[in-house]
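Bacterial putative lipoprotein, pasting as requested.
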Amino acid sequence: MAHMPAARILATSVVMASVALSAQAQDALTTPKPEAPRFKPLPPPSLNFYGSPGLVDMPSAEMLPDGQFATTYSWFGGQARYNLTFQATPWLSASFRYNGIQTNGAQIGGFSTYYDRGFDVRLRLLREGRYRPAVTLGLQDFAGTGIYAGEYIVATKNFDTPALSHRGGAGRLKLTAGLGWGRLGSNGSIGSISGTRPGFVAGNTGGKLSYDQWFRGEMAPFAGIEWQPNDRWGFKAEYSSDAYVLETGAPNVFARKSSVNFGAEYQARPGLRLGAYYLYGSEIGVTAQIQLNPKHPTQPMRVNAPVPVVPRSSWATDERHWSRDWATSTRAKTTLRDALAEALQQDGLILEALSLPENGTEAELRYRNPRYRAQTLAIGRSARAMARLLPPSVETLKIVPMRGGLALSQVVIRRSDLEALEHNPDATEALWAVTGLQAAEPLAEEALVSGDLYPAFSTSLSPYTAPSYFDPELPFRLDVGVDLKASYAPAPGWRIAGAIRQRIWGNVKDGRASNSVLPHVRTDATEYAQFGTTLENLYVTRQWQMGRDLYARSTVGLFESMFGGVSGEVLWKPVSSRLALGVEGNYVVQRDYDQRLSFRDYKTFTGHASAYYQMDKGYHLQVDAGRYLAGDYGATFALDREFANGWRVGGFFTLTDVSSEDFGEGSFDKGFRFSIPLDWLLGKPSRNTFGMTVRPTQRDGGQRVHVPDRLYGQIREAHRIQLTRQRARIWE
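Structure tokens follow.
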């Protein structure tokens, strides 16, 4: 297994360092001036064979639009490259790549196809100006085995070319020139820096930064040109500085006869670009490029129009005319509760409780939101229902989002503000400026609780996929089947849940066996995949509020497919604070491979102290320090960027007291993750997401148990930072 090089982590680390200078957030709400000119945005730059903005095989200095997510496939000369690129800020991008290189048993470890994983990072040094080109610095495959390792500085200048454009359009010409090191300095060298640079060594497990090699050794120039006569077609030519020393050493795979490459690309549809190329005087190549941007949903969001706010008459708002007899009548209050419950149900919300003090001037509504991802939309719908149905004397509307029995916060809105701003073009900002947000108080004794909510029982049947990545014999394996899930809530804050999984088809069970010297807490995945019908989880959980800003959870049962036990968590999170602190402890037992009710001999205590911090522009930093499943001690560092519409992209790495030799391939745990909200894809309300976490190498060091219903993600969704980012939806 030593032939599989490890993944690289610096892309994730550099993304973390970029937070303070990142781009304008998606949720910045500015009303454009009527006289401001409107320009059609430039199309995003095309990508090279490494999945980064560039020519054919060489990079350019261009950057993708902020937040752009691109995935590409490229093939030529027996080489397949799968690339994922994320534009973390306007000036910083990171890429993950998985390569398959045909070798016919020569040069690279003696394997007919050699698989490799790598990270790239690109940093823009200068933005393009009227006369100045854009300048970018890049690190390619900069850690580990370094089979594709190279660094470069490149400049690109764009020119409008109406005279050369198709049918007189506004075509573009791009000129690129740069200087490369490593692989990008292996052909046409014009000198060297700091002597000879070490080369790739087959069998190196990698995973460590090779900073001592960056911008050292032979350096060589590269250059190219791209002409886009219209928004559909693009034509490229380049001079390559990559000699492909390793690949051309394999017999009957790839013969490099020229340094000049040519290509033509076609924009088949928005987000999809196809290309065909002639490379190195001997090879035909192809690419497919897919680009998505969280800021531009595939379909517009469609929600039912809200019921208008009807202003009370001046007579009704005059205290001298108020009648408060209803405020002392239990029957009248019950009628109001039932009417509000029905109104909220029309909007997909569930009323949990209604408090109507005897002063008759305020009301508190507690609701549950199973439909909308944005809590502000649910808050706005709740406020409208209250303004429409409550007696005229009620001026102060208190709205409390609930989740799992927890009161997340209390939003305070004056009814007169709702009435005055209903048709105001600046209603969102004006209403948010006068809206109060504070910690929720305990439920009032006189509150009218909906009587038919508990006990609650629900079931669902849904498909599942369980992928497995980067097996050297078969890089991608997959199990598919169905999950039967059931949940029973006997009272607020309590939940009993479980899932039975039935595999219909899959080949994960045929993957490679573990060679780990650590306790096999994760690397026995193939053993767990041998059984078709399994009990995925079965647990009881309770969560409650211990005090102001203090939340707690306890869970017992089978947490996940590999571990069960007892878990406890406490979280401190003030409503208006960016910072949250938590501590979690778990005593766990490893489950038997058949995933029924039996266990193996391995038992351990694992727990962490955690710090969460919400930065500006949607960045979330998390640090977890403690003891992991294999008994190792250390810390996990994670940074995610979350867009206001629910997209989330991030990365993480874990450093523990396990040595790189004992850890094995990859040296330490790291990976990246993303999730896409279904409402972004479907254009209709949903709280569900689709996503995945990818570890370039799954090992046993630095692994945590997966406990359902951890607190932080639930609590923060209705706190100030999150609600402020979603404030535009309060009027929807």
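Note for the archive: Confidence is low (pLDDT under 50) at residues 1-39.
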